[in-house]
Amino acid sequence: MTLKATTSLPDARAFLGDAPVMAKRRVTDAGSSGETKQLRVAIVHYWLVSMRGGEKVVEELCRMFPQADIFTLVCNRDRISDFLKTRNIRTSFLQKIPGAKRHYTKMLPLMPFALEQFDLQDYDLVLSSESGPAKGIITRADALHVCYCHSPMRYIWDQFHVYRHGLPWVGRALMSITAPMLRAWDVTTSSRVDVFVANSDYVASRIRRFYDRDSIVIHPPVATDDFAVGKGKGEFYLYAGQLTTYKRPDIAVRACTEAGRKLVVIGEGEQLAYLKSIAGPTVQFLGHQPFNVLRDHLSRCRALLFPGTEDFGILPVEAMASGRPVLAFDAGGARETVSSPKVGFRFAEQTTEALLETMAAFEEVEDDIDPHAIRAHALKFSSTVFRDRLSSLIEQQLSTHGDRSADVFRRRPG
């Protein structure tokens, strides 16, 4: 059977002009809280090789959109949560390279090519989780692309020289050659994003500086219900996290060594041997520990020492959810989380001396600090708050995006 047009050309154009209204209605309806399950959703994350802050965000996105497919450059299923293992995870061609699960960071020059090979044409909503390259994917023209930015890539921007100095000469030479091209690609692909969401005011300022884009700040989810206020007075200071140069664990180790204070260090990294060489007898190194051990130490410490600069820093909020104060360097996300003398202190200089002075000031008022008030403050950063704020934003953007799509069709010459 052959179908023939039964309208004149002007009438057909009028009909085509009305067609986007149908599409707009569909997108608008899909944006309502009861209809988002009808959307085809893709979650793009740089790599799934551990369970840190970025991966916790991916878990929450999957809870918000249980129908979503995950796209990632490299995945190590042995190091991700049981929940993420149940998801439909699609990896790039980098996954097939021998040693990719361990040496993925060395493949940075190949990552733009790998990202752009992902076929996302079937997806209405794309949520990219950016810290390594993730936002550079290519979406359908009428899809909505929301980028949750943990940080613009540190190793090609403000932390370039820190990372470069830590490499052997071959790595330094390769990074010097490829970094300018990666920066150009990173800036160019920022235009592929419809809406940037920053995990802190600090990251929002970096998005503005490097991409010249505005963003909406929604703090990342913290599983505050997984923590509880400990009993009794804290027994030791705690440092937890990667033992890398930019996190400055040496400041915590030196301060507690000089002051003769007990310090427990949980974590692993390239600085471990050096830290042990400068540590006194009051410092104990536990290496990598499972979550239940970390949670126990958070509930029993006098305070968490946080001498590095983080884009947000989930660990301080976890400590506060345990009712314990935080002594943090006055930079990055700590300015937004350790925001009251009721929950901790910030020190202005990233030095051992500044931390020692802060520890002395803290110990003078330590007995007056209310653990339950600290936990109440931490609840402002709960997973529930994150989901509510991000859901509202996505619904509003889906509706607005539908209006813009309709306007594009209306403006077509006819």
From TrEMBL:
It comes from the Bacteria. Residues 231-366 form the Glycosyl transferase family domain. InterPro entries: Glyco_trans_1, Glyco_trans_4-like_N, Glycosyltransferase_grp1. CDD domains: GT4_WbaZ-like. Residues 52-225 form the Glycosyltransferase subfamily 4-like N-terminal domain. PANTHER family: SULFOQUINOVOSYL TRANSFERASE SQD2 (PTHR45947). This is Glycosyltransferase family 4 protein. It comes from Rhizobium aouanii. The lineage of its organism: Bacteria, Pseudomonadati, Pseudomonadota, Alphaproteobacteria, Hyphomicrobiales.
